[in-house]
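Usage

Read records sequentially. Each one opens with the input sequence:
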Amino acid sequence: MKPRTIKTLPVKFDQKEIGQGVLDLGIEKDAEINGIGMGVLSDGTPYLNQRGLAALCGVQNAHIGTISSQWNEADPKPRIQSIKAILSKIGLEFPAAHVEVPHNGVVHYCYPAEVCLAILEYYAFDAGANCQPEARDNFRILAGTKLREMIYSQVGYDPTGRNRFDKWHERLALNYQSAPRGFFSVFNEAETLIYEMIVAGAPVDEKNVIDISIGRHWSKFWDENGFNERFGDRNKFPHRYPDSHPQSKSNPQEAWCYPLDSLGAYREWLQDHYIGGGKFRAYITEKAKKGAITPSIAQLTITAIETPQISGY
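and closes with the structure output:
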């Protein structure tokens, strides 16, 4: 079997790379369980950190670091040859043993699950006098897909992506008919935009409430253009957040709703001013700076929303 060279880790939800570069990776979930550091990267790749992998293998942390430093030597050591041969048997080839990912001001050394299993198998059966009983026991427990499943389970990550819409659906259930008759709300009108954000991989949750940003900019535009005179007075209505959002502590929130006669003007403003004028890009970029969205997902989201839906427009 010809090895499949993994130049970049697979992107979640069938997303594509932007241009020719490699997308930045972030850490979406992480935890330390019984001294084993683990997590999931922003593209859905489960990993162990260097210390966690060393603990599973029953070796010193420095041994795992040495594997990384020797990974691409011109004259590879027998240990590296053995580990790469294990990966090659299942059709995999990695350009590096680990991925360096900055997270909360610290660079994390993340070893993808497949690399972890290959190193674990080496110390279980192929390291000669350096074989470790801990590695053998752990390999028997975690072989195949068990390591991936264990990491996903321990950090609370759903690899299927089925739950990515949950928090948005919770808000919809509370607010889908909340604006009074004859008026529309920004939240309900933002449904298509929010859906496209989620499909692009952006988390829509208590940290990323795009309709607040849209509402503030639209309210300012409304006042500046005297739309009360043109369309009639806007009104206030109660908007509620689900218990999963800390904003729910001050429920109900007062939000503006707007006359239906102004709906066309709002949609034109959303396309031409909020999205076309760079306000959406600025919002997502700021969220990425704060760590609420990873840089790669931010780029994908901006591209998905700003790209015209009809060719030539």
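Summary fields computed downstream for this record:
- DSSP finds 14 helices and ten strands in the chain.
- The two ends are 46 Å apart (CA to CA).
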